[in-house]
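Your task
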Amino acid sequence: MGAYILRRLLLIIPTLFGIMVINFTLTQFVPGGPIEQIIARIEGEGDVFGAISGGGSDFGASVTSGESAQGGSEYVGARGLPADFIADLEREFGFDKPPVERFFTMIWNYMRLDFGQSYFRSIGVFELVAEKLPVSITLGLWSTLLSYVISIPLGIRKAVRDGSTFDTWTSGLIIVAYAIPGFLFAILLLVLFAGGTYWQIFPLRGLTSDNWESLSLVGKVADYFWHIALPVIASSISGFATLTLLTKNSFLDEIKKQYVITARAKGVKESRVLYGHVFRNAMLIVIAGFPALFVSVFFGGSLIIETIFSLDGLGRLGFEAAVARDYPVIFGTLFVFSLLGLLIGILSDLMYVFVDPRIDFEKREA
């Protein structure tokens, strides 16, 4: 197993490099780079040199990545600005260097865990991600746990009572839940329970209350769960449906096997058959898929849910960076997320071995 893990870890390097190459190349053809964003801001403010001198620190000095720099006269809307001023901007962002040089400079910095500084915020990318990360982890972790706590017992119950009225009605509810988009369900929760039209039970926005610092430990925990209740429910709705059906089908496949029939013929109690024999084999794919489900919730619906519930997490950060062409933030978060995703893939394989030690990936590869 050690050799398999080592090979997977080594494969992370070319995979991660390929992801960064593809995305960096695509940005060279995207119009409206950071310099054009700054020019638009400056012309909108009407004070060219005052805006740059007053906010120069916010525009950053990180030479990490970016769109291919064109001549100052070629920037749309820049004809009223001095060419020297445009050239200074290009040097500040590092766009006076060839794209290949900028790319390898970025990769070298990332290898040293130097993710640069945001173009439009007075903060480093690493600090910015660390600031937003707890919100997204909160949504991903609790949504995944809630899905498992509900889906596994419900899926087992549906498998045991397959074809019954209970199975039919719950399947209908699950299909409806799966069909409802997460953002629409989130809006429905706000309308019903956050003072939209009916009841004011849960807060409308934020992760904590304004007086959170003055609360006791118990009060802080209660306030925290009070705020995350609706976002977590909205995030877990689709994963809950998928996981329930997966659990049911896994149990049905195992129940029909010969060892279950033999155990029942020997007079083993039904609970012992289900939870002593069937559960371990049926839950292999379900439990081992925990890391993948967490990542899908973490990355998939975070943007919409965070926007609807006014949560300042990584989803909104990535969206705002993409709109503003804040390339250090875009590429820094892409690098971190891609690395996490690849590591989670290895963790999923280890979960398979943990749940069922009979699995040997090295022999399967051979």
